[in-house]
User: Fold these one by one.
Assistant:
Number 1:
Amino acid sequence: MNIGFLIPLSIGMGLAGLAAFFWALRHGQFSDPEGDACRILIPQPPLQGEHHVRLAPKPDHEDPDRRL
């Protein structure tokens, strides 16, 4: 390929990426990164009537007889 074609193409792709970043910044995509990071770590509560196998029925501090 001709270098006269590749250089403008790469500059255009860089400008398109920069425009997409500023669009996302303006539309609130990065408004709460800490909250999103915490939400992904918190397990979702089970639906009503379902038993979640990974969650203990009582926390360890409420049931001192429970052993690992």
Number 2:
Amino acid sequence: MNLLFANDRRGAYPASWYAETTPPLAPFAPLDGDRRADVCIVGGGYTGLSAALHLARAGLDTVLVEAHRVGFGASGRNGGQVGSGQRLHQDALEAMLGDGHAAKLWHLAEAARGLVSDLIRDHAIACDYRPGIVYADWSDRGTREAHAYAEKLRRDYDYDLVEPLTRDELHAIVGAPGYRGGVIDWGAGHLNPLAYALGLARAAAEAGAAIHETTLVERVDAGAVVVTDRGRIIADRVILAANGYLGGLDRRVAARVMPINNYMVATEPLGARAASVLSRDVAVADSRFVVNYFRLSPDGRLLFGGGESYGYRFPEDIRALVRKPMLQVFPQLKDVALTHAWGGTLAITRSRLPYLGTPAPGIYSASGFSGHGVAMATLAGRVLAEAVQGETEAFETFARLPCPPFPGGAALRAPLLALAMAWYALRDTVGL
């Protein structure tokens, strides 16, 4: 079964609140027969679109192929949070990699957020960007650790945009009685992820990249030949930017990058009640291992994400799946209708750090952003574009990151991960 088609109709965006409210782009024509290119990019999400934009700007003949529509995958379905740093905290990275390598990753993450801001400004991308992400903790110990980490960032990284929040200060912003405190990062932000992806696609096309939608890549042959159901692209270099939808295009990458499914809902407009849920226009992510994340839409809906699964198929009742954690956070919303529910496939690595590599001569790959991909996937596209042109410093910083394969092979890794996640869910429940 192909994840590209397991849960979605070909060429159609999912029935999400984003797809319903975001002005669409006119479709890009499918590939029509064989052609040559300097670079062929597989995948029309943030990584592929950013790579296409930067390569086209540099004057390279660039072709991007997407099996569905640009922004179809996780790039157009996620919670829209543009976070600081990497998926792992700096103290964990220092212990794992040493202070020097950890510092390079911090500065690359800062460059990623800056790149998102620059692209939004330079290309007039109307994606409702707003500053501020609250990180809410379910325990007093977690709150103390979050406050200590804010101080570490100020002291060691000269980053003073993280504001500690006591329980009362957090509750003044987030109307969720279970949280014990947290922090707010004013350097981070949130946006409409599909609008951002479509803005990148428009910018890449205007820069000269050729984009072909509804063009399914069947395989990549030796010599950087991309074989699709619409024709072949004979390229000097190939960039694999399919993330959770990579499938069998490269088994070395697939062994280290595992697709998982995550889910979101949108409530009906909350009206005056919206201020009792979030009193400020910020996004929130909490300390559960399976993270709850949410924000308000411009029309006053709660956009809430929570719940994961590890098979190919989405559950039949996404609303029921996500309503459970939503009501754990906001029990006062038990009478509120859910008007939209959708799922998406992202990709994780065992280290929760992105996997960038060259799995074969002439082939570059970036994936496994582990829920931290709005900024990092955008940066990864630029990093791959630089590497194709011989500028490899940032690429090598990422390529040195540990990324062991998942145990169990293709048959057993999903069940093993499901068991591990069940253990962490139990820890969340009992407050460990």
Number 3:
Amino acid sequence: MNKTELIDQIASAADISKAAAGRALDAAVEAIKGALKEGDSVNLIGFGTFYVGERAARTGRNPRTGKTLEIKAAKSPKFRAGKGLKDAVN
């Protein structure tokens, strides 16, 4: 399912226009991004949790040249599925 199909699904389920559903989806995504940027997590009961994971600095290897290089520490967005989502899939 892509974004357009998701917007169509939201519009029909909520009985709103596709434009309104698109704005609502964009607003939800922006709210999640904003919370993660501030270091907060977003908990949607029954669906899951969006959070920021930390990756430590490490040494890597360039596969082409075999040279070692330092990879910087980084933050990465992560998602942990909740029980309701896991049950719906299984």
Number 4:
Amino acid sequence: MATKAAARTPNAAFMKPLTPSATLAAIIGPEAVPRTEVTKKIWDYIKKHDLQDPKNRRNINADDKLRPLFGKEQVSMFELTKLVSAHLK
């Protein structure tokens, strides 16, 4: 007989609102939001401005707003979280 698994509770660290730096605020807005929401908003921006590399969709091409955040012309989606973390308090 299988028992029903307990409902997962979100990790408090992921749900804590964090304040973006001025560089990040230019992309996602100045209000403090949880880390999960920051990632979602950045991906919304990337998709809206069609910034994924057409040849390799795992790479993100920087535009004028993302360049100061990334520090280079292109990053992989795996680098994205690390780079964004440096801009959250």
